[in-house]
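A quick word before the example. In earlier lectures we treated sequence and structure as two separate objects. From today on, think of them as two lines of the same record. Here is Uracil permease written that way.
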Amino acid sequence: MDRFFKISERKSTVGNEVIGGLTTFLAMAYIIAVNPLMMSIAGIPFDAALTSTCFGAAIMTIAMGIFANRPLALASGMGINAIVAYSLCGATALGVDWRVAMAVIFLEGVLILVLVLCGLRKAIMDAIPVNVRRAIGIGIGLFVAFIGLKGGGIIVGNEATILTLGDLTSAQCIVALVAIALAVVLETLKVKGALLISIVVSTIVGIPLGVTVMPTEMGFGLDFSAFAAPFQIDPQSNTVAILQVVTTPALLMFVFSLLMSDFFDTMGTVMGVADRADFVDKDGNVEDIQPILMVDSAAAALGGFFGASSITTYAESTAGAVAGARTGLSNVVIGVLFAVFAFFAPVVGMVSAPATCGALVVVGYLMMTGVGEIDWTSMDSAFPAFITIMGIPLTYSITDGIGFGFVSYVVIKVAQGKIGEIRPLMWVATVAFFLMFVFA
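And the structure line, produced from the sequence above:
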């Protein structure tokens, strides 16, 4: 096992990998409860969506561990599942059947896999300027911290100021503040498993405060009826779902839009996690990126096939990397837990967003350390980095933030008359972003 996963070679231990896997799992376990609810809005039976969510995450997370040997966990993506529920399905959206929506996801994943096999996805990553690469990881750090603060109720929406401070005396905020205090103090004292401890203790603290919801039942029956969704019959058109997609221009536009989102979300997430898990070189290049991209692309297609929405790499993987995960062994731990909790989802539901707040905030802090490596003295390289860092959390989208950075970089270089410094694939990516911003 040590030789297969290169545990000693990467200066890790089995204990570190287990703790890292547990930390990542708890940080992203909310998806077990959230995704089936979102998919049920789209029309998928809840038990079927739960089964698909858990087994899809389990299979692809373990696949990433075995084939890429990197601590990158995967599960159904938040954002894309919302697009499925509210933009593709439902009376207020296009109103397509959920099987057709899954066919859109499936086709998008297949196209991304083709791009990876052709080498285009890696080539675009290599074409990104160094400062923008560094900025992506920093922006994701702020994004992750923002997710934590928002989930903990410390930051709330406000019509007048957009965002404002939440009620710090509320039960939700108290649990979040305990989580932050524990995570910061334990991390400062270099306690092994600091983030995991903060999540578990905060979950316990939330019980008497009513934030942690105790399970009323311990299991669900497995339901595989959503599997092979793209190849099931669409009851609205009485044709195979995927045929409905390839013959409908509006649905093909959704395929393109989701492809852009998946393409660059993963790119940003991998760069962010790689920086914390020590598999990025001094130029910001991710080591052994090809197998990572292949597994992630296959996961998008598999998510559509399973009826789980697009399965993608999770930014919360940074929590496990900070906790010590360096190899794919942590993925095996995560994958096994996802499979087990297909039967015990209510137990995972006990881990509330406020309980994970501390772990995510500390991860955000740690990912900010790369800000000093950006050359801020030259606006032509610094401004694209700045707009990327700002854009990711403020638009609540890794893809949009990266798009802002790409477009601004190209515009500045053109204005300077330095067109020759723009790599061809940066032009391709920038044009694609421009089309996405205009038409999506």
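Notice the following. The chain has one domain: 9-439. We will return to this example when we discuss secondary structure assignment.
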